[in-house]
Every structure is written in structure tokens, then in C-alpha cells.
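S.,

Sequence below, as promised.
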Amino acid sequence: MEERERQFVMDQLASSEARVVELVEGLTPEQWDFRETPERWSIAENVEHLVVFEDFIRGVIAKVMEEPTDPDKRTLAAGKEPLVLGVANGRSNKLVAREVVRPVGRWPDKVELMTELRRARAETLVFAAKTERDLRGHFFPHIAFGDLDCYQWLVVVGQHSLRHVFQIEEIKADAAYPASK
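The prediction came back faster than expected:
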């Protein structure tokens, strides 16, 4: 990964984590668990999804990095940079999370869940800061975009967090959202 790429990923990861933490700080249990509609996720479920998604992506990156590089896919992935950078802003395009990363109440305690969020992000930051592997030569498919390289997946992790920041902001803007005590 080039140094400018590494810095971009590090900045995205740090700023998106800070934004999530800022948005959930001081929430009441009612606010934490509020759902706009029965089929929408609560703030707690959004945060759980972020943790599970990030751990999942880091695990898949580790697995595909064990395989040989696939230079034939580099050109195709390069054309997907605008899609990757638009993940956060593409809220009108609803994506359905893979079953394995859907929230199921793994961490019912808010403090524990936020600890897990910070742990997951710290592990991703350490990986992004230290890896010398050829992230641009290893690929795995996104549910909507097809094959992305592992560098793009690190960008997706930050963009994905921002996408859920916007979702949390929508929840908090709902007319029925519980008032602070």
C-alpha cells in the first residue's frame, strides 16, 4: 500500500470511529434501543453490525492474503474506486447485510458493545498501519460491486461506518425518537 493510501485509510478509520462514538455518547437505554420501524435497526444494532462487519472483513482479508495474487483483476478493481468512495453517501441504495454480520444482540450491554467497537477498530488500525502485504493484488467480492481489492476493502470499512453514522443520524432525527432525560 502506498503511503498516501495508508494515510487515507487511517484517517477514514479514525474519523468514522470518532463520529460513531460522538453520536452514541450519553444515550439513554430507550434511545439506544429505539427503532424507527420494526424492520429498521436500532442504534445498538447498527453499532453491533459495525463490530461484526469489521471483524468479518479483517478475517476475510487475512484469509485471501494467504492466496496468490491475482494480477488479472487489478484493472477491473481500479475502476471501482468511485463506488468504494461512495459507500457512505449512497444511502438511497439500500444494501442487505450478509446474514453473518447482522445484529443478533451479541453485546446487550452498551459499555461492552462500545468496548468491542473500539477493539475492532484498533485491530483494523494496527493492521492498516503495519501491513506491507500487496493489498492491491488480493480480491474478494462485495455484495453489490463484485471483486474489490483488499485496500479497497479497508476503505469500505471506514465508508461503511460513515454510512451507519448517517443511519444513526436518521434515527435520532425521527419525530418519535425518545427525548433525553
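The mean pLDDT is 92.

Coffee later?
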